[in-house]
């Protein structure tokens, strides 16, 4: 697999995003074992941009490990500072099956009830609105409106 090439501006942006990340994978004294490689592969699939901490004092070995991981896992090497390695690989698209007849889940809503007298604070009510319900402008919970049927002419239009 060819290694991903990035422009310096893209690499700089990814470095800025990686600054706040914590290391996801730690490479111990045994080095790059198959289990560590598998974990790095899973982390790249899940997050795309990851930090790896290497507990080795040999800088040349860390640099070799960095280049080897980037080439093997088809990832772009972003940064190598001290014992931290940053790799990036675009995340694969997740397929979601759309469920047409499914309604949204419940949500909690705060409703303000204003007093008829002007100087008082509004009363705050916490309501749970289910997926098959709606909230009216007056603060009442009602059944959701059914979608209107599409006319025959609109269904047949190209």
TrEMBL record:
Keywords assigned: RNA-binding
Residue ranges of the TM segments: none
Coiled-coil regions listed: none
InterPro entries, A to Z: RNA-binding_CRM, RNA-binding_domain, YhbY-like_sf
Compositional bias of kind Basic residues: 142-158
Domain (CRM) ranges: 4-100
Name recorded for this polypeptide: YhbY family RNA-binding protein
Organism: Simplicispira hankyongi
Lineage per the UniProt record: Bacteria, Pseudomonadati, Pseudomonadota, Betaproteobacteria, Burkholderiales
């Amino acid at each position: 697999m060819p290694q991903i090439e990035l422009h310096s501006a893209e690499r700089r942006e990814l470095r800025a995003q990686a600054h706040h990340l914590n290391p996801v994978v730690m490479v111990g004294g045994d080095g790059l074992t198959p289990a560590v490689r598998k974990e790095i592969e899973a982390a790249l699939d899940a997050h795309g941009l990851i930090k790896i901490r290497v507990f080795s004092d040999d800088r040349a070995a860390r640099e070799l490990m960095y280049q080897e991981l980037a080439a093997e896992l088809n990832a772009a090497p972003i940064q190598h500072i001290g014992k931290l390695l940053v790799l990036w690989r675009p995340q694969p698209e997740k397929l979601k099956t759309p469920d047409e007849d499914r309604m949204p889940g419940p949500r909690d809503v705060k409703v303000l009830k204003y007093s008829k007298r002007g100087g008082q604070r509004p009363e705050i009510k916490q309501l749970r609105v289910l997926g098959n319900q709606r909230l009216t402008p007056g603060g009442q919970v009602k059944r959701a409106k059914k979608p209107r049927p599409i006319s025959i002419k609109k269904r047949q239009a190209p």
